[in-house]
Amino acid sequence: MVRKLRVALGHALLYGLLCGIALLTLFPFLWTLSTALSTAGGVFTFPPRLIPERPGLANFVEVVQALPVGRYFLNSVLLTVYGVLGTLLVCSLAAYPLARMDFPGRDAILAALLGTLLLPNEAGFVVNFLTLGRLGLVNTYTGVVLPSLASVVGIFLLRQAYLAIPQELLDAARVDGASELRIWARVVLPLSRPALAALGILSSVAYWNAFIWPLVVLRDPDRYPLAVGLLYLQGLFAHNTRLIAAGTVLAMLPILAMFVFAQRSFMRGLEGAVR
Amino acid sequence: MRGSRALSLAPARSLAGPRLRTTLTAYLFLAPALVLLGAFTFAPLAFGTLLAFADYNVLAPPRWVGAENFRTLARDPAFWVALRNSLRYLLVVPAIQVAALALALLVNRRLPGITLFRAAYYVPVITSFAVAGLMWNWMYAQHGVVNWVGLRLGLLARPFDWLNHPTLALYAVMLVTFWKGIGYYMVLYLAGLQAVPQELLEAARVDGAGRVQAFLLVTLPLLRPTLLLCTLLSTLAAVKVFEEVYVMTGGGPFGQTTTALLYVYQKAFQEFRFGLAAAAGLFVAALGLGLSLLYVRLFREGGLRPW
Predict the structure, then answer these.
(1) For chain A, does the N or the C end have fewer beta carbons within 10 angstroms?
(2) What is the reported pTM?
(3) Which positions in chain B touch A121 (Cβ < 8 Å)?
């Protein structure tokens, strides 16, 4: 009886601790949501309020009227899809020979790829911008995604997955006279679906959230993705906190929805990157 | 690799030997990635190094000026402030790692609803810096939550204007980096912890080791590669910290929160002094590389195998 009580008490304490930490990590979101839903009262009240005052969607309506939110949203979707598909293609092609072929220069390439992980590559963004200017890609989505398509982390993640494919399957396909490209498309890719999904999710978060590089590359505000549009909104309505909060919620929602649906793949993808 | 032997079974249609064909095929697969990496990762290193010795504002062709840019940097107090801030930012690394490992240990158990808590701690990671910066601007406002908590706990005598304070602003931004980073490293440590064989821990307990001892003597040594990886990633992120500062303070007040990479950005895209920006960028790259090599050295006995 006493033991049972102690275990129960231990669990209660543990859950209390877990809830307390969750409140700390989630508080900014809860507060922003509450502010976005409030249609009256002061924004900054002591004590801070988590229950919206006169809740309503008026702020969201106002944001959508003040800014081309729909367009920004579509821009973000376009940019993300473009970036993710490109990343998956480039990385899944490159990982195949690095995992399953023996050729001169392979180890040197692997070492060079690892080396790039040790360098803060952002330091190169001055030169990258000039390069894009040379190629005539300033103010284009190609210019935004091109420098990050060949993700080194992505190549290693997929290489790990390819290494686990049984050699017999590849040999059988070769005996049947399949070309390497066909083997990659028909055998290797279908067997690496979890890793591809994980990389897809990781890179979609990165492209959806990117704002510095789009801000540098894109000149035309009509082409801005949501994240950049949000900062633009802050400039326009510096003092209307409720409005900016509504915009912030709108920018967060798609990523949160994706996370709720694909939470397993998120966590797994990270683990795959470690091993 | 068994691949090359298997390939010789394939019908050799070309006159070239199978070895040459494999090599050609391999490089065809690698071509897109190698071209992109060459153009946007390796070329900037080489070209950026050259640019660091030139005067270039896009309008006129680059002019060779020798070490002039580096002399200009050395004379610019703002550059030293930026470098100092980037080094100060390294303080966030041990803080994040200790907190993330503690959190990983806390959620590394079978409990109803534990995945929900793991997910909750991970949400800041998938938040863009644009969103995180805006939210925390409100948290730090004169009448914001941070001040309210500080006043209630008696830690503050009066509300602070955190993000406009010349010394505290940088630490305020650091807290955001900390908040955003914990979940990410927690998941990495969790993966490491789940790879620790249970038998070893049980054996240690049988030998009379307490929980703390078992952790120190069994778990920690096995976590070494994960520790190195996380510390390395977190350090590089700290050296090139930029977005959160850009969104929250813009480097202000009076440039007191400018970081090295923000300085590069300002020189390039606000003042169009690309040579000077490249020289400062070279500093950031060297700093990151130096720290990386130092870590790999320190951890080497741990048998680091990234793949």
Answers:
(1) N
(2) 0.86
(3) 41, 44
